[in-house]
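Query structure, 187 tokens:
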């Protein structure tokens, strides 16, 4: 679907030069000389390469409308993840690269949302947060305030995050998967 370059928003997927690009940042510029233009910072979905594009304000771009489907993660097979459609129980394999930095948080039977175009998976999303155990962290130092300081910690899945000083080894915490950030202690 063609839309004006002025209407492109962060998070949109566009098709340009036979590539599917996710828009990361938009900037409208009105130079002193010449016409206004839109600068888009994009990321190629296949390769992960960041690319900047300029479009005249009057130009149209091809916005890709993606279908969202939910799958259940079954197992890993080489560089692929095997998923199952929860409605018709068909299996689908996707490249691990679609999950990216979130891969350590992937657990058996976790629900994954795929964004698809022409039955091809372009983006994969895990749930927004996960409950994990702290495997390693420094001990508490007396006198440290919990408000301003954080200490490094390694989770059971190997991911590294910063946690407040009152968190100890073996504690269960809730982590924002996308930002790799401590949210709260698990209850």
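Result returned for the query:
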């Amino acid at each position: 679907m063609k839309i004006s370059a002025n209407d492109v928003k962060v998070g949109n997927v566009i098709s340009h030069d036979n590539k599917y690009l996710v828009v990361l940042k938009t900037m409208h510029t009105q130079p002193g000389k010449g016409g206004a233009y839109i600068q888009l910072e994009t990321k190629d979905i296949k390769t992960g390469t960041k690319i900047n594009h300029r479009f005249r304000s009057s130009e149209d771009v091809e916005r890709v409308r993606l279908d969202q489907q939910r799958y259940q993660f079954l197992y890993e097979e080489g560089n692929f993840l095997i998923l199952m459609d929860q409605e018709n129980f068909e299996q689908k394999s996707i490249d691990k690269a679609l999950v990216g930095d979130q891969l350590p948080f992937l657990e058996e039977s976790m629900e994954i949302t795929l964004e698809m175009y022409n039955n091809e998976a372009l983006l994969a999303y895990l749930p927004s947060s996960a409950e994990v155990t702290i495997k390693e962290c420094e001990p508490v130092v007396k006198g440290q305030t919990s408000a301003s300081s954080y200490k490094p910690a390694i989770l059971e899945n190997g991911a590294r995050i910063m946690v407040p000083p009152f968190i100890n080894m073996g504690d269960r915490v809730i982590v924002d998967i996308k930002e790799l950030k401590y949210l709260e202690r698990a209850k």
